[in-house]
Amino acid sequence: LGPTLEFYAEVSKELRATQLALWRVDEEQGGGGGGNARYHTATWGLFPRPIAPSDGARSEQYFWFMGRWMAQAFMDGRLLDMPLSPVFMQKALGRPVANQLHTLKQVDPAMAQSLELLRGYIAQKQAIYRKEQHVEQLGLDFTLPGYPSIMLKNDGQDIDVTIYNLDEYVELVLEWTLERGIEKQIAAFRGGFNSKFPIESLLCFEPDELLPLLSAATEDWRLEVIMEAIKADHGYTAESVSVMHLAEIMGELDANEQRLFLQFITGSPRLPVGGFKRLYPPLTVVRKLPEPPLTADDYLPSVMTCVNYLKLPDYSSKELMRQRLQQAIQEGQGSFHMS
Questions:
Q1: CB under 8 Å, gap of 24 or more: what pairs does 89-97 form?
Q2: pTM greater than the 0.70 cutoff
Q3: According to its UniProt record, which residues of this chain constitute the active site (predicted)?
Q4: What is the DSSP letter of 85?
Q5: Residue 66 has pLDDT above 80, yes or no
Q6: Which domain holds residue 9?
C-alpha cells in the first residue's frame, strides 16, 4: 500500500513541475510556486498554460497521460495530489464554460482585474477622448499577456491596442485564455481519460464533489481528533506520555509539515476524504526498543507505510521527540528499506 500511494504522490508532484510548462503561472506565487520553485502550487487551482495553434504536441501527450492516469486512480480508489482548477474540471467534463470575466477570476484574478480596468476604459470612451487619455500609453499589443509568442490576431505583435480596438482586445484575451489556447490540452485529457472509461460517467457529479479526490480538502488536526485516531500498541497505551507528546506535536505542525509527516507515515501527502477517521489501516504507534548500549534518544522514528505503522522510541523529552521527528520526515522522504 505504501509504495502504491507514494507512486501516485510522486506522479502528482512531477506533473506539477514548472519545467514541463503545462500550467498557467500563478503570479501570486511569484511565477508558479515562488520564484525558482520546481513545482506549481496553484493558489487558484491548476489551469492549462495556453499554447499557440502550431504548438502543443508535447503538452497534448502529457495531458493525455494525465487523463488516463486520473481515470485509473478513480478506478483504483486512489487519492491524488493534483489541485485542479474547478474551471478545468468543468471543461474536462464537457460542460459549457462562459468566456467571461467572472470565469477568468477563478483562473487568474490578477488578469481579470486588469481586463476589468480596460473594460472601464471602454465604458468611458468619450471622456477619454476629451481628456486625451490614450490607451496606447499602456504599451499593449495583440499578443496574449504573459505569452508573447501567442498572437491574438495575425501579426499581433505589430498591432497596438488603442481605444478604438480595446473591446476586441479584451474579448480575444478571454477567448484565448479560456478556450482557444487550451482546447488541445482539454481534448487530450478527455481522450486519455476515455481510454479507461467514459468521462461522461462523472457528469452526475459536480466539480466540487470530484476535486476533493484530486487535491487536499480541509483536514482536522485538532488534538482530540488525533488522539482518537492513534492506535497505541506493543509497549504503548493511549495514556503513555510519548503517545500524548506525539499527538501534541502533530497538532502543532504547519500545513507543509503535515504533508511531510503524512508522506513519511503513509506514503501519501494527504489524508483520505474524511480525515484521520478514514485512514486505513489506522495510524498505529508502537514502542521502538533500543539495543544496548544505545538509548531511545539515539534513534530516529521509523515506519512501515504499508500498514501506517510508526515505530517511535520512548524519548526523554517532547522537544527531543520533535527534533527527531522533524529529521525523519525531512530526510526520510522516498526512502524504502526491507525489514
A1: 89/207, 89/210, 89/211, 90/207, 91/182, 91/186, 92/67, 92/186, 92/189, 92/190, 92/193, 92/199, 93/199, 93/200, 93/202, 93/203, 93/207, 94/190, 94/199, 94/200, 94/203, 95/203, 97/178, 97/179
A2: yes
A3: 306
A4: -
A5: yes
A6: 2-99+181-214
Is 306 catalytic? The answer is yes
* Residue 32 DSSP code: I
Q: Residue 164 above 90 pLDDT?
A: no
pLDDT tens-digit series, residues 99-144:
999 999 999 999 999 999 888 877 776 666 654 456 777 889 999 9
Q: Report yes or no: 255 and 218 within 8 Å, Cβ to Cβ.
A: no
Distance separating alpha carbons of residues 321 and 258, to the nearest angstrom: 16
Residues 227 and 327 in one domain: yes
Q: Which is the catalytic residue, given 52, 138, 300, 306? A: 306
Domain harbouring 206, CATH code: 3.90.1750.10
Q: Give the pLDDT confidence of 212-238 residue by residue, as tens digits.
A: 888 756 789 999 999 999 999 999 999
Q: How many residues does the chain have?
A: 339
